[in-house]
Amino acid sequence: MSVQSNRREFLRCSAVAAAAAVSGSGAQVMAQPQGFGGGRRGPAVLRLAIQENRLPGETLTEKLDWAEQWGFEGIEPGGRDLPERVEEFQRALSGRQIKMSAICAGFEGCLIAPDKPTRDQAMESMKRILTAAGELGSVGLIIVPAFNRQESLPHKEARVLLTGFHRWDRRPEGGCDCLLGELGDHAVQHNTRILLEPLNRDECYFLRTLADGASMCKDVQNPGIALMGDFWHMTWEETSDRGAFLSGGEYLKHVHMASRRRRSMPGEDGEADNYIDGFRGLKELGYQGDVSFECGSQGDRMVQIPAAVELLRRQWEQA
Ligand code: MG
Known about the structure:
By secondary structure, the chain is an alpha/beta fold. Helices cover 43% and strands 11% of the residues. Strands 3-2-1-9-8-7-6-5-4 form a 9-stranded parallel beta sheet.
């Protein structure tokens, strides 16, 4: 084959690959849903969010009042009882600046369990929470394929079950016949996403780095499947905060924040709590999603939470 025909063949294959990448899972072609969290474009901004159970206050209204007073723009509830709380959140968020952020787990079962009933339980449970998440305009439901405490399939089998075959010529007709493909389709129907969360090795072995999570997103090619990064887990597993976020690229839609030694409020672990390198990565990406507090406090939350907000705003400026 001549150089020229080699080049023509290369361009033809590139065009096919690009078309496949754009069209996603074959017959299940779906447009990227617009207007829900995390889909914004433009210069990076530091949008802080916080998990519901980290806030002071007896009622949801009191918690939202504190969050808004401290400048948070998103609230992140757990997923367990979200389907029963949709109206409560809609009422409480009505007329406020603060919006629904990601939904943190709360599902049952295990996606890569050896037995199908446990996998089915995870699928059904995640779909129920995704439906509620969509009603609330959430960027997505945070999931972990399997925790270390759960029995799971060998890594290679688990990966194929979740993401299908990575080779285009081995993909079944009509799309990606895989669990994340099915969940992604359900998420897109409800204007939200699945957010894969890499954890540190104490909690999970299957998915520990953002690059591996991004690779799974790339395999599935479904706008309903995306990725998040958690500074706490990244502290142990990643060699570079900036590099990790950049490896997540366009798939990165959410970030968790904590101090880097004790998983407390940022700043409570002193010099260790430096996020500037990671923030540089987020800025390079033009990141528009939330940076959400998932952390306790060793001290008085009424003091530590606003101090952490101030620290992060300062480091964002320095990045
Ligand atoms: Mg987390």
